[in-house]
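Hi support team,

I submitted a single chain yesterday and got back a structure, but I'm not sure I'm reading the token output correctly. Could someone confirm the output below corresponds to the sequence I sent? I've pasted both exactly as they appear in my results page.

Thanks,
R.
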Amino acid sequence: MSDALRQKFRNWLFRPTIEHGPVVLTQRRIFILPTRQGLALAALLLLMLLGSINYALSLGYVLTFLLAMMAVMSMLHAFRNLAHLEIRAGRAEPVFCGETANFVLHFASRWPRYQLCLTGEDGTTVTFDLAGTGDHPVRFPLPTRRRGWLQTGRLRLYTEFPLGLFHAWSYLHFDTRLLVYARAMPQAALPPGDAPDGEGKRTIAGDDDFAGLRGYQPGDALPRIAWKAWAGGRGLQVKQFASQSGDELWLNLADATDAELEDKLSRLTRWVLDAEAAGLRYGLRLPDGELPPANGDSHRDECLTRIALSGPVEMKSPAAAGGRR
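Hi R., thanks for writing in. Yes, this is the structure output for that exact sequence:
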């Protein structure tokens, strides 16, 4: 059976659905089958039983049924290792293209679990134990190869604990996604701003906005002394003010001289990071709109989000984003 037909059969048999909240692994959600080792043990037990019947070996019966009972108990423990486990999806932080995305799943258990494995559609597998009761966050890493939204796809949680004779598993498909920013160029000079010196607005010493307190130094003007701070026992401190010089720096996709769209967005991403690191006020212009000049973490993240979702972008699972490994 080809991989495509096998996948269609699995989708028909297990009816994958997207989960919108916590998942509890009840009996209807857990599947269990013998492994190769389990099938080999079953064949061996059958031969032992036939031999015991043929030669009327009482001890042979005892050993055969003892091993059979051990196998049955192994199946029950494999099922119990997943039963009544509660799983919910946590928040996933954005990453840049090329970095590893970390989805967080929270496992709540009422007893210890051992040798749990979580595997994705691209073959990524994480093995972990749940040492006791309570909430246990587990990170599921996925490689990123393209910008845009990234989903975990359908995950398979399985175990072969304790003896590897039975394979118990369940499917998880959460409604969670992570934003992958465009890859930033290693180096890219900022475009010239609108100010005469070619730079965007910078925060410098001035008289416009209150910028904090500093210790008193001889020669400081008396009106700038923070008398309330002195009355509160914090010593003599002086008020500092700041203003901004220059005009805003506009980061325009049309100013990127690269031939390919992805290279243009990569250059624009580098401009945003460098402008924020330099303390400039910068705006963003894209074909689908613009953001007015500002700065700060929230403005930087909004710019990176607009860049990541600019142009043709589609929702993708790990298998679609990078192919099966």
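A quick pointer for reading it: The chain has three domains: 12-181, 182-201+248-311, 203-245. Let us know if anything else looks off.

Best,
Support desk
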